Amino acid sequence: EVSFVLLLLDITPMLPVLEGVVMELQDCALSLLREIIPTDKEEVAFKDLDVAILVGSMPRKEGMERKDLLKANVAIFKSQGTALEKFAKKTVKVLVVGNPANTNCLITAKSAPSIPKENFSCLTRLDHNRARSQVAMRCGVPATNVKNVIIWGNHSSTQYPDVHHCTVNMSGSELACFDAVKDDAWLKGDFISTVQQRGAAVIKARKLSSAMSAAKAICDHMRDIWAGTPEGEFTSMGIYSTGNSYGVPEDLIYSFPVQNKDKSWKIVDGLAINAFSRSKMDATAIELIEERDMAVAFLAV
Ligand code: LMR
Q1: Is the pLDDT of residue 73 over 90?
Q2: 210 CA distance to ligand 1 centroid (A)?
Q3: Checking CA distances to 239, which of 77, 96, 159, 275 falls within 20 to 30 Å?
Q4: Ligand 1 site: residues with CB under 6 angstroms?
Q5: Which residues form the Lactate/malate dehydrogenase N-terminal domain (predicted)?
Q6: pLDDT at 67
Q7: Could you tell me the CATH number of the domain that includes residue 27?
Q8: Are 167 and 178 spatial neighbours (Cβ–Cβ below 8 Å)?
Q9: Ligand 1 centroid to residue 199 C-alpha, Å
Q10: In this model, does residue 288 exceed pLDDT 80?
């Protein structure tokens, strides 16, 4: 029988707040939860882990340069990567959520060289779910009727939500997304910018970044790693690029269309890419290269 022990790591001043989270988890009466261990010690939190979900990062504050943000996060994720290397199982599945998620994930993977690169991923499922839902609302169907959207690249405003391989089930027939929506201008314009800017729009409205939708996306992502994606469907995950798929440069954590099986993933190969898609896929890769080069320079210090 599957059951969980939850290890919750936070910085020392936040331990009293973490107690509140522990109480809420207890109050959920979760059927599979056996034990909760709150701690401020990496050697406790990372010991023998099967799954690590790294949500904590340094958020950008007013007046902060992108460079300062990266520097602070390189320190955090280098430390957590090193702890994974030392204490976790070599089979651990690591999901990085804290922003800038792709580059934080790359730094974590580089700091844990004995854990296979395939075990690391970053969250673009939230963007994937956002894209799916935007199309569903436009067509007046449930989100589950929309399949195979793709998020390419960075979890940032340069990401490319691609619907060229997406289908929509309308009144029992499976239509190509462009035929279902019947508004190419929207799909190539406002749809893309809405998904790209959704995180910022949520922050503007809530004065806090997304919480419930991010938690749901984390659950979707991990469940797919564990249980596999449904037959004929794919999802989006930020994974390590070896330079062998879709002309994406190597040594980046880049979001691709993937299928999950046996606790692993495979990039969905052979999808046709038109010039419109190509330029957007390249633009987000360029941003990731810039982030990587700046982060790796900090890593060497
Ligand atoms: C989101 O996509 O909702 C977040 O990544 C936004 C943010 O910057 O926290």
Answers
A1: yes
A2: 6
A3: 275
A4: 99, 126, 199, 202, 209-210
A5: 6-120
A6: 74
A7: 3.40.50.720
A8: no
A9: 4
A10: yes
Statement to judge: residues 140 and 117 lie in one domain: no
**Owner of token pair 């001043």:** 13
Q: Does residue 64 carry a pLDDT above 80?
A: no
Whether residues 135 and 59 share a domain: the answer is no
Of the three residues 91, 122, 153, the one that is the final residue of a domain is 122
Q: Residues 109-134: pLDDT tens digits?
A: 999 999 999 999 999 999 999 999 99
Q: What percent of the chain has pLDDT over 70?
A: 98
Please, which pLDDT band fits residue 62 given cuts at 50, 70 and 90? low
Whether 145 is in a domain gets the answer yes
Active site residue 128: no
The number of angstroms, rounded, from the C-alpha of 50 to the middle of its chain's C-alpha atoms is 18
Structural domain harbouring 109: 4-122
Are 274 and 139 in the same domain?
Answer: yes
> Do 59 and 153 fall into the same domain?
no
pLDDT, average across residues 267-279:
98
298 falls within a domain: no
**Together in a domain, 65 and 204:** no
Where is the domain boundary, 105, 122, 139? 122
List 128, 155, 165, 221, catalytic entry: 155
From residue 288, give the alpha-carbon distance in Å to each of 104, 120, 148, 259: 11, 16, 24, 23
Residue 60 marked ligand-binding: yes
> Residue ranges of the alpha helices (H) in the chain?
15-27, 42-45, 66-87, 101-110, 125-139, 177-181, 184-188, 190-196, 198-206, 212-227, 275-300
